[in-house]
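Could you join me in thinking about how sequence relates to backbone shape in a protein? Would you write everything just below, so we can both look at the same thing?
***
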Amino acid sequence: MFVDRAKIYIKSGKGGNGCVSFRREPFVPEGGPDGGDGGKGGDVVFQADRNLRTLMDFRYKRKYEAENGQDGMKKKRFGKNGENLVIKVPMGTVVIDEETGLVMKDLTEDGEAFVAAKGGKGGKGNTNFKNSVRQAPNFAEAGGFAKERSIILEMKMIADVGLVGFPNVGKSSLLATATSAQPKIENYHFTTIAPNLGVVQIFDTSFVMADIAGIIEGAHKGLGLGLKFLKHIERTKILIHVVDVSGSEGRDPIDDFEKINNELREYSERVAKKPMLVAANKMDMIDEEDPKYIEFKEYVEGKGYRVFPISAPINLGVHELMAAAAAELQKAALNPEQEEEYEYFDFDVDDKDPDFKEIYASKKGDVYVLTGKQLQKIFDSTNFNDMGSLRYLYKYVEKKGAIEKLLEMGLQEGDTIKIFDYEFEYWDEY
């Protein structure tokens, strides 16, 4: 099964917590802190792999999580870093952040990789909080949060040459004759429901050719499976437009040629401007002196295209067509297309997370509630049996203006403030 779009959930590893520990040695009655730092959480990495051809595996597994960092240990031993999770995808896969709709990375080269979700930092052990005043810190830092994202994977096949044309004009037959590919070939109007790839070996070179599934009129509007098919043309360097010049199904070759070109233009001017060769197929059913063929040839050449008479099943004219395609690819290599323009995801802004330090105040019934990402990290680091640690939590909340916000909302002495799982009574210490 060919799958070219998938939605998955990814989550990096949480950072390991710092350790609270004190030296316990003979003849050292008041040993200092010796808690080690937690390990970093694993990253989620996407990597392009030339051996993959489809996103089918992501239909069966949709949730991917990297390993958490290990907690710090006594005797200043650091926790182990979590293993990175490497997710391999086919070359030509565009990775999109679902929430923003922005492209995170366009993976076009074999082995190309990027970090889609960074693991949380390891928390500091209590050795880091010792100072001249605080000789025995009884608290440590919690590990950093994991990153969670919903990701859209969209695959656009990477081929040098794309075969386009109406269904049943002989694209699959041409691919089978010119390459070692073995596409299903039957006399149906929608035989090909997914692109097929093959490698053309000619002279001392080779190139990849794709049979783009049959395009119908209105494909650029999404009719049939139009948009799904058309996007695979975007990465090709040149196009071969296959036309049934015999009119074997009562069609007009010139009309077919114009309709397909119009679909390409309506979908993308960039696609429509690609170099194009025209394959006048099924010449075994018509003579080159036939007025219908002559009219078609003169019309197409009048538009500036080269016409190649072929009959794919009997290998008539196929070599000449492939030789012309190889020559066009050499020209294209000298004048490469501009890369596709995307609106890219801003990793710098994501890493800074401007909302991280914000504390949000609300009221549920008679209870005042405080939430926030950094607040949660400090809360998770708090030792509720240690007054110094509790005082640090309160001072942080006060310094960030949260108490002032609650007073404006009507907070009075004796009222309840809830911070995550804990509830506190508010009393003005002054």
Remarks:
- The domain at 353-425 is CATH 3.30.300.350 (GMP Synthetase; Chain A, domain 3).
- The first strand starts at residue 5 and ends at 11.
